[in-house]
Fold this protein.
Amino acid sequence: MAEYDIMELRKFVAPEFVFGAGAAMLAGQYAANLSVKKALIVTGPVLEGLGIPGQVADALTAEGVESVVFSDVTPNPRDHEVMTGAELYFREGCDAIVAVGGGSPMDCAKGIGIVCTNDQNILEFEGVDRVRHPGPPLICIPTTAGSAADISQFCIINDTTRKVKIAIVSKTMVPDVALIDPALTVSMDEELTAHTGLDALTHATEAFVSNASSAITDLNALEAVRLVHKHLLDAIHNPEDINARTGMMLASTYAGLAFSNAILGAVHAMAHGLGGLLDLPHGLCNAILLDHVIDFNFETAPDKFRQIGNALGADIPFSAPLDEIKETTLSAFRNLKLAAGVKVNLCELGMTPEDLPALAEKALADACMLTNPRQPTADEVIKIYEAAC
């Protein structure tokens, strides 16, 4: 039984989205519907090399929409990349943005949009509901199955001075439309497939136990977990399997609808500091931390964790002792993580004991920590980092 009151007021925000093979090629039609004259296509250099942004540009041209490409976006997009993209947007006379890529290009695109309409530095928007004016029309075309930035109200940007990834949360950044095309994810390699898939699992898990969860977000979160369990390993080992790719894209979408509204928790709050300090893949940080945070949070929602464990293939009865529920659920997460190839720890990736006090301070200040079901102290955050080492 859920621990929230189903009569309690809850809001749910989501963009219009089109899901299925070929969705990306509707970019021109949707841009024309939004009366766009010239779009800034925000993408990354690898995708540009694969020609996917070029195909999107052709779809725009076919509908009479001009475009210019901004591809200077790195993983964990930097504050200065956002500001450079905004300068190009103004210089080229753009009136809309089309994001093509994974979470990094889409977050950068959201950042560019709000900088352009609010005339502020991107770092000034850190936190919740600090964006006064919505960005220009935004069309998101995801090429990975995990970040769900295409349907969320989140934007994550690397503050290069403080060496931390900041969270900007505002419904003003929910895209106008997401064109979700599973066929675009076939080009992902095994490692990227694993990391982004485990990111989707983290989104769903944290949303399901969030103190802002609801009946609506719970449905999306739990189905996302089931889909990850069913399809992730097939997508990793059989990249051309379009059924597995579609299943993982659905998992990402469901998880995004859940976390965009229920928000996240300690895993993301702690991962943001790691990403800013060590420039590590976001999904990898989440995967390493996830089971350790579950261990810490378990006592707040044991039955919800039991349900997640069962969605990951366990068979835990409602009447099982709490210690059995906990260990079986943790085993389900750890087995999937290992099967997906995540075997490293944070120390092996460069985290040192000297980093821990600053990392804990940044995690506790992160907006995602507000909805973690159990509020940790700095010492408890440090212990979780140490457990993941």
